[in-house]
Amino acid sequence: MTIRSIAVFCGSKTGANPLFEEHTRQLGRLLAQQKVTVIYGGGNKGLMGAIANSTLEADGKVIGIIPKMLSDLEHQHHGLTEITVVETMHIRKQMLYEKSDAAIILPGGYGTLDEVFEMLTWNQLSIHNKKVFFLNSNGFYDHLIAHITAMNEENFLYSHPDSQMTVLKEPADLLKYL
Asked: In the β-sheet with 37-40, what is the strand arrangement from edge to edge?
């Protein structure tokens, strides 16, 4: 399947390691160059702002979906190709999934994990079958990936995690999947 749009899940903060923002900006430029539309949470702070701004600076297309309650907290981005303000987080997540061909997970907090686990769960339940990529900058997701591997080894998953997710070390590693 050709990936023409990708949901980007990441933090509304930049995190402690400067590599997180550097990788995010590299990814934004790469996606713009490949004509892949970025679909994300609509904020202008942290890694969310970095993915949007770097994609736009490289003449890419960025669609934001933000709930009213977060438009101030995440500093709604006002320079996007398209922005949709929705009522709830559930509507936001559903629209992100519906509009994207795949997802890429960058460093983030609870919200990022909520989004990735819902997407993986929906894959497992055959609600959709979208590839999920982890950009494992500086090993950020090593422990989570080890835990997912343990869930599989202990027979709690219905399919091998490798069938649903791919772990990348660098933004350019995504190119072969586009």
From this structure: 82-86, 62-67, 37-40, 5-9, 102-105, 131-135, 165-168
- Contact yes or no for 112/101 (Cβ under 8 A): no
- pLDDT average, residue stretch 159-172: 94
- pTM of the predicted model as reported, rounded to 2 decimal places: 0.95
CATH of the domain at 114: 3.40.50.450
Q: Measured between alpha carbons, how far is residue 152 from residues 94, 112, 116, 149 in Å? A: 26, 21, 17, 5
Contact 175, 30 (CB under 8 A): yes
Q: Which two tokens stand for residue 40?
A: 């994300």
Q: Residue 74: pLDDT above 70?
A: no
d(CA 13, CA 25): 14
Number of folded domains that form the chain: 1
Mean pLDDT of 34-62: 97
Q: In degrees, to the nearest 5, what angle opens at C-alpha 112 toward C-alphas 138 and 52?
A: 80
